[in-house]
Amino acid sequence: MSPIAITRLLILAAVWGASFLFMRIIAPVLGTLPTAFFRVSIACLGLVVILALLRVRWNFNGKLGACLVLGMVNSGIPATLYSVAAQVLPAGYSAIFNATTPLMGVLIGALFFREPMTLAKLSGIFLGLFGVGILSGAGPVEFDYKLMQGALSCLAATTCYGFAGFLARRWLDQQGGLDSRLSALGSMMGATLLLLPLFAYNVMTEPPASWGGWQVWLSLLGLGLLCTAFAYILYFRLLSEIGPVKATTVTFMIPAFGVLWGAWLLDEPLSMAHLYGGVLIALALWLVLKPAKAH
């Protein structure tokens, strides 16, 4: 993998890791569905402005429908599922389940897309999950129906991510490919269309007690424009460059950057567990990203 691709992967992890800071401000005030809807809709509007400023032609080459579907699978449905999980699952467990995305990618690739399964990849995936578990510091909780409901919601979301990565490469990269900026815009349009009726129903039945102040809305702008619009341009570029399995290893690094942002900006404490988890994640990334031996 080229140094430029590695740099993009690190930037994406840092940006998505920062989203946790914004979520801590927004979600307790607005609730889960409004937060998810505003995130994708602000990202959609932001991408419209970005493409207009850059004078990018809206030429989807007949792939707009595929982009809309991908947006629903890759953004809209997972956002809704994580909204369900957030009601019942501790944050540490959500981080662990989110990091199963590369494992889902490896399994889905082997089962449905004829991707080679290697021992190094599998070892890296499980080592990465172990590192994320240490890093998140999630202690054991009592197994009950709510825990199972939250776990299944998270696993369904990561399954969506796994399928979307391969579908994006199959649907968007064929016949000359599609500009990553247009891929991101179409994806956010699809996610917005999916979440709009859910958001409207939520507001009509259980409106937020408060719509927040300037801090909440500035955080929403950061979440929508930086952590979603810009991040998805990077993500779709990486999907084309390094493939879906390697691109989804970004989920291993997101908790690490979340810890670093929290320590730097929120004065959250660091411990040796963070060092051990970070080392394991680095080793896992090397196993998954290293080139396969030529036969």
From TrEMBL:
<dbReference type="InterPro" id="IPR000620">
    <property type="entry name" value="EamA_dom"/>
</dbReference>
<feature type="transmembrane region" description="Helical">
    <location>
        <begin position="184"/>
        <end position="204"/>
    </location>
</feature>
<protein>
    <submittedName>
        <fullName>DMT family transporter</fullName>
    </submittedName>
</protein>
<feature type="transmembrane region" description="Helical">
    <location>
        <begin position="36"/>
        <end position="54"/>
    </location>
</feature>
<feature type="domain" description="EamA">
    <location>
        <begin position="149"/>
        <end position="289"/>
    </location>
</feature>
<feature type="transmembrane region" description="Helical">
    <location>
        <begin position="272"/>
        <end position="289"/>
    </location>
</feature>
<feature type="domain" description="EamA">
    <location>
        <begin position="9"/>
        <end position="136"/>
    </location>
</feature>
<feature type="transmembrane region" description="Helical">
    <location>
        <begin position="247"/>
        <end position="266"/>
    </location>
</feature>
<feature type="transmembrane region" description="Helical">
    <location>
        <begin position="119"/>
        <end position="138"/>
    </location>
</feature>
<keyword id="KW-0472">Membrane</keyword>
<feature type="transmembrane region" description="Helical">
    <location>
        <begin position="91"/>
        <end position="112"/>
    </location>
</feature>
<dbReference type="Pfam" id="PF00892">
    <property type="entry name" value="EamA"/>
</dbReference>
<feature type="transmembrane region" description="Helical">
    <location>
        <begin position="9"/>
        <end position="30"/>
    </location>
</feature>
<feature type="transmembrane region" description="Helical">
    <location>
        <begin position="66"/>
        <end position="85"/>
    </location>
</feature>
<feature type="transmembrane region" description="Helical">
    <location>
        <begin position="150"/>
        <end position="172"/>
    </location>
</feature>
<dbReference type="InterPro" id="IPR050638">
    <property type="entry name" value="AA-Vitamin_Transporters"/>
</dbReference>
<keyword id="KW-1133">Transmembrane helix</keyword>
<dbReference type="InterPro" id="IPR037185">
    <property type="entry name" value="EmrE-like"/>
</dbReference>
<keyword id="KW-0812">Transmembrane</keyword>
<feature type="transmembrane region" description="Helical">
    <location>
        <begin position="216"/>
        <end position="235"/>
    </location>
</feature>
